[in-house]
Amino acid sequence: MTPAIERTTEQRAPHGKSRMRPGDVVRVGTTGLRSRPTRAILSALGIAIGISAMIAVVGISSSSQAKLNNDLQSLGTNMLTAQAGKDIFGKPTTLPANTVAQIQRINGVESASSTAALANHHIYRNSLIAPGQTGGLSVQVADLNLLNVVSGKIRTGTWLNRATAEYPAVVLGADTADRLGIHTPGSSVRIGNQNFTVVGILDPVPLAPDLNTAALIGSEIAARLFGFDGNPVRIYERSSDESVETVRPLIAPTANPQAPRDVEVSRPSDALAAKYAADQAFTGLLLGLGSIALLVGGIGVANTMVISVLERRREIGLRRALGATRGHIRSQFLVEALLLSAMGGVVGAALGTGVTAIIATANGWPVAVPWPVLGAGVLATLAIGAIAGLYPAIRAARTPPTTALSG
Amino acid sequence: MTEIIRLKGVSRSYGQPPTNALSEVDLMVEAGEFVAIVGPSGSGKSTMLNLLGTVDRPSAGTATIDGAAVNGLSDSMLSALRAYRIGFVFQQFHLSEGITATENVADGLLYTGVPRAERQRRAHAALKRVGLEHRLGHKPHQLSGGERQRVAIARAVAGNPPLLLADEPTGNLDSVSGATIIELLHELNRQGTTVLVITHDTELASQLPRQITLRDGRIVADSGRVSS
Ligand SMILES: Nc1ncnc2c1ncn2[C@@H]1O[C@H](COP(=O)(O)OP(=O)(O)OP(=O)(O)O)[C@@H](O)[C@H]1O
Ligand SMILES: [Mg+2]
Questions:
Q1: Domain extent for A385
Q2: Is the Cβ–Cβ distance between A108 and A257 less than 8 Å?
């Protein structure tokens, strides 16, 4: 009990160093959070909102990317379309009647099909609709193998066949059916001044969006009722994946040797990918907004910590009197800031994943939140916590213990 | 006897131009003493106690506490000195609200690296020493002023420091509670702890073995041995 101590030199402390166990460092780092839970929650919320926004943005965009990849996988990227252009008067032109047969002769082509829009004939729900109100819908003559070539699917009813192609039977694109208010086969519609029976309705066709607003009829009935001459307007062509690029330059000269320049050749899967890329630009913008939210959240944490340090000068002084080093005080407040933002980070990551799951599910996309992004998000919050906590922690450590104790 | 405190020409000045809160103080205290520090308000009592407790450094002169020359020590060595060798008691108790008496006392050992369970065990022992074994789980707001100060004393002595410094420990207490606290300090002193206590109560001070009187930052009277 008596402090009679053997000493070798005056400078060597006759006792241990001032030290803290790692568990205590964390426990002491939570004292501020426990004594002011509301403030802790509010400032963690800032971080949570920022990180959840970013994770939701990335999650939603990668979910839609996953959907696109799935789509392209099942639709294939080996389809090309060729479309007859307009003549010098701006009137739509057509392709020669044997175009499909010619295209099929190209090396590498596996299948080909065609449609021809009947520019002068329109579809109506019934005969009471004024002829001008076409609703942006087109009547198109379709080859019987069209559905296979464009990977289209029948939602209800049947596709045209050799028999129905000779009768006033029509298959509606998805949007056509919606706009006409027709949901079941068997209904009757007016095309030109003729009654047609709906035999089938299509699902949306991603690779041929043109078909969504079309009413498709067989070439025999079109020839009989509307004087269709058999000249296609648009060609759909599939080749093997490897030969797409070699086939592509041959399409226009083959389809219309007289005027190859009037033929527009395109690859619909490219259009899908381009649309997705446009979405990505928007994603970048949202990501920027998310990171601003995160920055504001970080400033919120720094602000909370500065106030906390000012309010807790007495506590700091007491801890110094009990033997805390400047380093101990610094780490206490740094740990507090880290815990604060980590709390926000974890909640935000959960929130962002939840939002992604809801939106992806609502759109029928696969839920895809990349794990590296989640990890990076939580790491980012830790980095923000460290930066936000550094200055307050250094200030706390610099508080002279006497000032901290008086008052 | 071993000396535990030696101040040599110690001054502490504040501000610009510097004004001395403490001026060229010489003081020697031996281990096992019980010293009262008295003097009017603003005379430098707290300033001196802070220097003795190594939470402050002298502007001039040398302070040697428990054999360590304070001027030359790093922050971590000074902190170690406070963690192991010095106990503090304050007028305002400085207990943490929201945690129990036991946890408050155990925090006195927080910076010595003692495992938590062992800290709690020693905290119980310290609370028993100050007669509060029936208040282990009470939080500060559930305790009387005198009990709070006893918890604070238990925290200060939980690690058995050889030096106990108390700045007006009875200042916020009624005379009965104050007397209990002084009796407690006597008991700790009998067990070997060197105790320095600041007080405004001259009657109380006169009962202690040694009184040091400060005025305007200087020691103007010392009933004990005059230091060299
Ligand atoms: N941080 C500071 N900055 C400037 N002056 C200070 C500071 N701390 C103390 N002083 C001055 O030093 C002088 C001594 O102060 P100290 O607190 O030691 O007095 P005291 O004897 O403890 O008084 P009391 O009995 O009122 O507690 C006072 O004049 C005070 O104004
Ligand atoms: Mg004072």
A1: 3-71+274-406
A2: no
